[in-house]
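Throughout our pipeline, every protein is held as a single compact record rather than as scattered files. The remainder of this section carries one protein's record, kept here as part of the documentation.

===
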Amino acid sequence: MKINRTNFFSIGTGTFLLYAFLVLSAGLSSAESRDSAQATRFYNDGLQLSQAKYWKEAAHEFRKAIQHDPKHKLAFANLGVALSQIGQHKKALLAFEEAMSLGYDHALLRYNRGLSFAKLNLIEEAVKEIKISLKMDFRNVKAIYDLGLLYLAQDQVEEARKLVDLLYHRNNDLAKKLFDKTPPKYKVVSVENGGTLSGRVTFKGKVPDPRFFPLIASPNIEYCNRISDGLGRRILFDFTVSKSRELKDTVIKLIGIPKGKPFTTEIQKVVMNRCHTPNYTIGIRNGETLLLENTDPIIHEVVTYEFTNRGVDQRSHRPVNAHTSQVRNAFVKHDTEEFLLKCNLHPFLQTRGLMVDNPYYAITDEEGRFSIKDIPPGTYEVVAWHPFIPNQMGTITIEPGQQSKLDFEFNGGDVRRKLYNDDWFMYHFQSMYDSFENYYGGPRVDDKIEVLQKYTPLED
């Protein structure tokens, strides 16, 4: 990834201090007093012009202040800011240096000085200055971001990634911005004579009962019960097992592939229809964009969560209005393992994702089958992931141009899941929030189709 260093940084626009020296020594002569007063007036005029972003005019006023008081260190410091804003970075550095020689040092001075060095392609000097700035004030998230850009300019990608992690909780927008500029670990190359992996996932033992959600606990009862068991409940099948014991919705991913075919350019879509999404599981990479499409005449309050070994954290929480689409970003901590997207109003609407770092993954169909193509020859670990049950692992050697086979089997006795449909607490929505003629979305005339969910336990 080639870095354009000349247009890489945005110089800070803040002045250093918004006050002037107002205390004059009693021993000053009348001429000295006049010069001091004049310097203070020009300096304050420069500050006001700086705040209005009239940088050229501000620089002129700061120079006047310096003419009347050659030791006005704040005038030199702010002159450096103004000069940097109009692209005169060499002169800005001289002004910053003069301010420092007069005894003035500040985190913002060091930060702006570092940015001027960066604009002159003096990257090492810029790194040094911004590090000093952060030692003086570690709260400057823009300095952290710009330091990350400097590391990228030096091809120190791992150092930049560390700063993405540092920014993640301090300023998520800047973290995402730096993340997008950081080259991914996975490299896209042409794959010649790649192999194919296929297989089947089966399930033995007792199939876990599905989760039953009482519709009375959610709004929009009369709309959402278009899919129900006929008894006022929605059924969520976490484990969909065919009569011949194949497991649907299992994510199969290969580990340890550093380069290969590109990720698909097609955006992943999560469609919400009748308070349901057909994508129970997906593979998703960090930073990927999801398209949420709400085809229902009601609002869905969609929340996303990240799962790490330290617990679960909420990432986003926004409503998706009726008959609208919304883009949602899946930017998570670097060590996130799983991703959850669900509706807080209708918790039976949810999609669970496994984080992937290469495009070599697949999701099993109704017959438990999967196929992954164009795999670079080599030996790899393979993970079979399904929510609420420990992963199954395998190893496969992919031969050039050959098809390899690997099957997985899950055991119902290993399932770890809580049926939390009947332990709701705090507020429940009441049926008074809906009526047959006027629920959220209008009269029930647009869709008369009913889907009766059935659950018949499979024999062991």
About this structure: The mean pLDDT is 88. Residues 49 and 447 are 62 Å apart (CA to CA).
